[in-house]
Amino acid sequence: MGALIEKAGGRIVTATYGTDEHRRLLRTLKGETMWPPPVWLMRQAGRFLPEFRALREKADFLTRCMTPDIATEITLQPVRRFAMDGAILFSDILVLPWAMGQSLEFVENRGPVLGAIRSEADLNRLDPKRVPEVTAPVMETLSRLRKALREPVGVAAADTVTLIGFAGAPFTVACYMVDGGGSREFAQTRLMAYQEPGLFDQLIALLTETTTDMLSAQIEAGAQAVMLFDSWAGLLPPLEFRRHVIGATRQIVSELKRRHPGVPVIGFPRLAGGMAAEYARETGVDTMALDTSADLAAVAGQVSPDLVLQGNLDPVSVLAGGQAMLKEALAIREAGRGRPHVFNLGHGVLPTTPPEHVGELIAAIRKVN
Q1: pLDDT in tens, 98-153
Q2: Residue 333 a catalytic site member
Q3: Does 306 appear as a known binding residue?
Q4: Per the record, where is site Transition state stabilizer (predicted)?
Q5: Could you tell me the CATH number of the domain that includes residue 62?
Q6: Domain tally, the chain
Q7: Residue range of the domain that includes 63
Q8: Is 176 annotated as a binding residue?
């Protein structure tokens, strides 16, 4: 099984799966242009897979994240079934504040519930020194995954899958920490940013430092690329976006590149809209993931041709399946032709998505035509 690889000078060579130097996703994240593009999906390890639902009955969400046997198996499930080009660590962005001592519970049909950070006293109760010990099981999971991916995994050949670590970006994690859970507006967080900017800056600074350290530890444990999820970046107006999204991300990326030269960083400033090009230019990310609302072709015209773009199929189209899904997917694939592009969704796989729709999507993206 082969694939066309278009190098920077336009030369096209044929790569053979199954050799370390032809791990297609990693090469794309480092700037090579390939056809067809490599593919993985956000939330590819999740409730849409029956094998995941079977494991879900054995332990609560946080226990699944913090038990290497379970987290390793869940991470590998979509690779085993679909031969995804990427395996993203099964974990959660709120592991970091929980590791610092913030209370966290995942409630069925409600989501995460945290002890809200509303004062300097609340903030001072967090202990970043706890993080390495508490997150040691996560690093063990990454180490096991790196070892497992050297061998064939289901339909995936040995040494073809890129292992991706991740964290929530500081602003998005702060949203949950201050509001105490999920929200559509995160009004308490945004109010703190305006009314108590000093306190909010302290929180962002703490998260910037601890996120950098945690991603660095993930790389040392075996992650070959890392991704920063800024799911709520689009809530901020330009001035605040520059301060809390671009500024924090730039610091994280700069320090990661100092510590781990050559390890790609993916940024996902969801719903950034008109700020996306500035985010790409100012943060230093190697890859910018696009949400469903973005026009990939238009964004490609606004950013450096060397920037890798990732995305951005509507997850609802995968739920629908059939020709509607394929038409949209192939249009996005075509929009990324001729530049470094990783095919993905604009948000996560929906829980009710039939697995066969995902299989059909992956097969369509991988056709060399």
Answers
A1: 999 999 999 888 899 999 999 999 999 999 999 999 999 999 999 999 999 999 99
A2: no
A3: no
A4: 92
A5: 3.20.20.210
A6: 1
A7: 2-365
A8: yes
